[in-house]
Amino acid sequence: MNLLELISTRKSVRKYLDKHIPDEDLRKILEAGRLAPSWMNVQSWKFILVKSQENKDLLSELSIGQQQVKNADALIVCVADTNAWEEAKITHIKNPALNPALQCDNGILIRTMEQVIYPISYMMLMAESLGVSSCIIGAMGNEVTQIQPEIYEKTKKVLNLADGQILSTIISLGYDANPTETVKQRKAFDDVVSLEKIGNNF
Ligand SMILES: Cc1cc2nc3c(=O)[nH]c(=O)nc-3n(C[C@H](O)[C@H](O)[C@H](O)COP(=O)(O)O)c2cc1C
Q1: Structural domain count of the chain
Q2: Which CATH number characterizes residue 99's domain?
Q3: 106-118 mean pLDDT
Q4: Can you give the pTM of this predicted structure?
């Protein structure tokens, strides 16, 4: 299957078989994330592999009780690390447009959340190529949504997150319990793609 076919047939899967993903495949998925590109190669992310039921239950609670978080074989907790810009010490670039470390707090937050989308996409597609289905979970308590602050604080402690490390996304992983074909619900090509200016079809 080529990459476009893989992308076309991938879907979010929320019910999983009771079957373990081999560690070797989990490593490949995480490795795909590690190799993703980032602004100035700062790699402002951490990935936490979660296999224990205790942590899955806590993360399900954080993500307002989503069952696929509880029932997944494994989770990858994706952390946007806003501290990474300072740590990279890119002092020779003085223009804030080129150096997110010099942008306002909001700019750093947005840039850091932006970076982590790339490894998430890579990991999701790597998983798919290994026959492992996934669902991206964004609905949860964190600095962005500001819901469930107590559960979020507890989760940060359990996962050992430092200040500035934001739990941005969870990827739930497992083998599809109901592998039926679905038709992709997407806007038409011409609704999202233009040539030179919006409204001019390619
Ligand atoms: C940033 C982001 C956050 C998402 N959050 C959730 C979520 O919290 N729970 C969920 O069930 N699906 C979530 N999804 C999955 C979307 O609902 C799904 O990708 C979309 O409906 C398209 O369906 P498909 O992935 O099957 O093509 C999220 C997707 C993205 C990209």
Answers
A1: 1
A2: 3.40.109.10
A3: 91
A4: 0.95
